[in-house]
């Protein structure tokens, strides 16, 4: 079936829900504590065995690519000042994976962004991870999808999450037949259905394993909602063939694409750090007592 070695991380969106900060800072670089969201997503891919990260980047996103690059001047400074731990950390981040960058000149949608990565991916299956979705799980979420593909022979796997019935209008929702309690053979995908017409309460979140033939499907996918090429429209073509599996993954997913979501995720991931937990709890206690900021 071919191993999944490459992950595409589209980061070329305009991030309008985070304006004005995204005028100058890529939203993927906004931090959960002292680490940008994108580091968590790259770490997930790497711990699932991914060797190459293809960033689909755009104008103004250089900070993101720099973050995973070496920084000789900074390293020399840390070395000269005996900051060994920080130096090791800075070097570790630069060595996490082989990083390739392609540019999406115009933000024409997620499907178009994935298609832009075609020359860098080549003729092999690949993973897609969206930087807005940060997952806390014992087994990396994308690794759970890669395992499902190997176990079932499905050509494509999408991550599924059960959502409250009244929230279906916020997501792409899957229709299909359950093959096991956590695996659905996906037949169709409905974008943002009202609860009354939603075919299930299982929504797609930003993790996918796709075959390289998705590129030729994307080339002939017409622009859909918002004049953008939608990745879901191309996956729907595969779903109609019966080769798409929906895997309900184990883990907590945080949507860091808007202000409150980032705040929640920041509290969660900071609290997981032993050296920060007590401080975070103290802030929350102050908040509850109404003494914050005094
Ligand atoms: P979003 O729908 O979250 O769009 O894209 P966005 O521009 O990032 O943010 P908002 O909605 O305007 O606030 C989902 C993912 O697809 C990428 C984004 O970077 C994000 O990771 N994307 C989207 C692209 O790379 N290119 C595009 O043309 C559109």
- The fraction of residues in strands falls at 15-25%
Distance between the termini: 60 Å
Question: What is the N-to-C succession of helices and strands?
Answer: EEEHEHHHEHHEEHEEEEHHEEHH
Proportion in helices? 25-40%
The CATH class label is Alpha Beta
User: In terms of structural class, how would the helical and strand content be classed?
Assistant: alpha/beta
What is the H level of CATH, i.e. the homologous superfamily? Spore Coat Polysaccharide Biosynthesis Protein SpsA, Chain A
Instruction: Give the strand order, joined by hyphens, for the main sheet.
Output: 5-4-1-6-11-8-12-10-9
The name of the CATH architecture is Alpha-Beta Complex
Total helical segments: 11
Number of beta strands: 13
Describe this protein's structure.
This protein has about 290 residues and is of the alpha/beta class. The chain has a single domain (about 5-255), classed as Spore Coat Polysaccharide Biosynthesis Protein SpsA, Chain A (Alpha-Beta Complex). About 35% of the residues lie in helices and about 25% in strands. It has eleven helices and 13 strands. β2 (about 30) and β3 (about 35) form a beta hairpin. The structure holds uridine 5'-triphosphate. Uridine 5'-triphosphate binds near residues 18, 104 and 257. Uridine 5'-triphosphate binds near residues 10, 11 and 130.
Write a compact overview of the structure shown.
The protein is of the alpha/beta class. 36% of the residues lie in helices and 24% in strands.
